[in-house]
Amino acid sequence: MQLRVPAxxxxxxxxxxxxxxRSARPSARERAGGLTARILGPLAPLAPYLRPxxxxxxxxxPAYPRPGRTGWRRWLPSWRQWLGGVLASFGLLxxxxxxxxxxxxxxxxLNSYATQQDxxxxxxxxxxxxxxxxxxxxxxxxxxxxPDVRWAVLAAENETFYSDPGISVKxxxxxxxxxxxxxDTQGGSTITQQYVKNVYLNQNQTVSRKFTEAMISLKLDxxxxxxxxxxxxxxxxxxxxxTYGIQRASQAYYGKDVSKxxxxxxxxxAGLLKGAGLFDPTLSQANHQRAEERWxxxxxxxxxxxxxxxxxxxQYKTFPEPLKxxxxxxxxxxxxxxxxxxxxxxxxxxxxxxKQFDLGGYQIYTxxxxxxxxxxxxxxxxxxxxxxxxxxxxxKDGHYGAASVATDGRILAVYGGPDHRTQGxxxxxxxxxxxxxxxLPFVYAAGLEHGVHKTRGGxxxxxxxxxxxxxxxxxxxxxxxxxxxxxxxxKVAAHNDGNKSxxxxxxxxxxxxxxxxxxxxxxxxTGLGEVRQTAQAAGLLSSSIGxxxxxxxxxxSTPSAIRMASGYATFAADGxxxxxxxxxxxxxxxxxxxxxxPHPTRAIGSKxxxxxxxxxxxxxxxxxxxxxxxxxxxxxxxxGTGIAAGTTGTTGEDTAAWYAGTADSxxxxxxxxxxxxxxxxxxxxxxxxxxxxxxxxxxxxxSAAMGLx
Length: 709
Hints:
The chain is α+β, with helices and mostly antiparallel strands. It has 27 helices and 21 strands. The longest helix has 25 residues, at 79-103. The chain is elongated. It starts with 16 loop residues before the first helix and ends with a helix. 43% of the residues are buried. Mean pLDDT is 82; it is low at 179-187 and 631-641.
């Protein structure tokens, strides 16, 4: 029988609590062994394969000082150690580059400034009118850039572009050496690298930026075709004179599109890529010498790489002198108002946001007629000058709004003010002064169109041009229930200019003579709601129509000159109205942009329009006998007479003087008024600014715009 003797209990630990904690911790050897086991544990299955390499690994382990050596040689590594260090360095560098390439993404957000373009506006004849934008740039498809131009750039900047991987190791090494070693920068980037710098990065000359540039360039070269990279580079590079891109550079230095450049001019422009401040030949004699030397070198390089024959090179011995100054069109004093109208219309009709439009690249083909615009501007400029001489007190607050609109809605010309840069207020588009008696044709049209109601709720009675109304002054305005009383409890009565009475008068004659009283009553008989609707259908904006009180018929509405011209154009177009528009076509970098264009709508009946036009023709004949518009076919039975149609517009408070009328399918409205813009938009009395007779100045401007003077 065996007895099991239990092991003696371990003696309790001695010492304090801190000592007991220390004794419970694993030793350093134990910790190291545990760490090694955790690290090498996953490699245990490879142990049989790694064991033969152990002797070689031990040889690579440095032993310092080296045994068997004396003096300073004891501290030199062996060739095996050198080799191991070099191989390890290359391995680490390779792993770093592979990892960096893998984690580098091509940015999705382009440098908006590098890709921003300008917008170009054209007259109706297709010639440039104005250019807007922070930069002068217009992107061009590569197919529209001649091969000679492309190869001039490649010969100057990167002749191996189509065969390199997107970076130049030699160039990067040289740039890094100069950046780190000497605090300077050196060229040597490929076109791909320069394009990446232009559109994705900034211009900072730092090692980190250059490294990022190289990684993105490698990846971009694998994902984007060489042609697309070259196209982007040619459209984003700086060429001096405020221009970006080869198209604007061609226009700025040679006044022509890039498609018309010859190889000699292309070589000069390519030389600017090295630094326009040093190679623009017009800036200094030293610049000219540098530019000529580089131009010659580029042409020689094109011969060397086989893109230009020696015979072709021999043709270009004379340096192609560029223009002395940038001829690109900028906005001017009056064209600013045209640009403002066109840009607002373009964004609205093409459904473009401000951000999209501001990025540029749009070609806006406007409806503005260069000759009509000049005639109108010259006439108003002359009138302003004369007013400052004859009536300086009134002239300092004088304004002259004018617009010409075709019967198909095209805005042909406007006068917006003396200078948009000092007065952004557009006088042709302002709705601040009453139309006065220039509004009477709309009341006449409403009566002819809808008839009149002599009893409340009764049937409408037709109205014709020969319908007679009371033309006396101070005739009380009546309703089916009796006199019309205003809110102060007084009977409302109509008044004629000069308080003149005409007795019984037909509506056609009343319109021809601008007799007020028949039309105030006609408006009440027709219904002020119908008057309002007719004016809006003809082209006036609802926001400018006056309150529905008897004064509405005498022109309390405040249409702009553009809208007044549009309304009169409706009469000349046999009653069809087309909303006024200032842009007929838009493209972006040559590609069409969808544009919603207005279509004609029936505003009033054709016969009504002819009757209104006939009365306006009578008005014009009576005021200006003998004046004809050559080739003009008058409306409303006046075909072949060559007589224009139009009438004046005056207000009871003498705050505005109008002339509106048509000739040869064009309607023009002119208004002269006074406003102190520093105080308010409240009209002031004209005080003789419009001339001795009510329409002398407005008519003179109107006739000049219509080509009648």
